Amino acid sequence: MHDLVINITVTLTMSLNHPAPKLAPYRPYGQLLTPPLLLSIFMHLTFTVIVQSTAFFLLQQQPWFNETDVFSACLPLNYSSANVTVREHRYAENFFTTTMFYITGFHEIVVEVVFAKGRPFRQPLYTNYLLSIMIAIQIAVYLFVMFADIETLYTIMELVCTPYYWRVYILIMVLVLFIVSYIAEMWFIENRKLWLWIKTMFTYKSKSQYRRLQRKLQKDPEWPPEDRTDYAIQCVSVEDPQNCTASNNEHKPEEAIQQARK
Fold first, then answer.
1. Packing angle between helix 129-147 and helix 95-115, nearest 10 degrees?
2. CA of 98: how far to CAs of 45, 95, 103, 228, in Å?
3. Tens digits of per-residue pLDDT, 203-231?
4. Is the peptide bond before 224 cis (omega within 30 degrees of 0)?
5. How far apart, in whole angstroms, are the C-alpha atoms of residue 97 and residue 75?
6. In contact, 192 and 120? CB cutoff 8 Å
7. Which residues pair with 122 in a beta bridge?
8. pTM score > 0.90 for this model?
9. Residue ranges of the domains in the chain?
10. Helix H segments across the chain?
11. Transmembrane stretches, by residue range (predicted)?
């Protein structure tokens, strides 16, 4: 449910950044299946797997971890539950789901910040007031749920209490995830000089029509034209090249018309 709320919030507010006041010296990617965008998705998937796997294995090494008794992690060490009736925990109430609930929620917020930063084609994230407010509310809600220690709230959300230091560990993992994700996007994925160098190393040539025309003009020894006059020739029918006229009737470029007919 929390994933749905965050996704709807992002969908409605993430595109509210206004255009940048100045044009960037290059255009954005024209296709979704470009190597930088695909690599960005792959990298974030990799970061997700690494963080969640680290939390999964690190959780099992904790002395309070118990798959059957999920309500004793926050109890004192000398506490005895012999005379206390403990309710049967539900299937979703365990340390794994509680830990992943916090990690996935904060990770979605990290993705919001990293991908909605704005520059160079849009204004910065802080100018999108509505999205900034929603991100602040989401962070506040997750921190409240994590550190509130309200048993009723945990029961409703099917969470279990974990030791305080483990919650700090989760925040550290999320913070490291944010730093790595932001650096990867800024210094690698959006590093235009790096990608131009990679294209040069692999002799990659763009298949865009204007790039093809640019390469043809670079190979043309007569381009740009100097000390000559060119006339635009219009043919009424492509199949009948004999039916051509000059667009500038005043000069009557008969030689240009004859050349077009050939």
1. 160
2. 21, 5, 9, 77
3. 777 677 777 787 787 787 777 777 777 66
4. yes
5. 20
6. no
7. 19
8. no
9. 2-200, 229-262
10. 2-13, 35-60, 95-115, 129-147, 151-156, 164-184, 192-201, 209-219, 254-261
11. 37-59, 129-148, 168-189
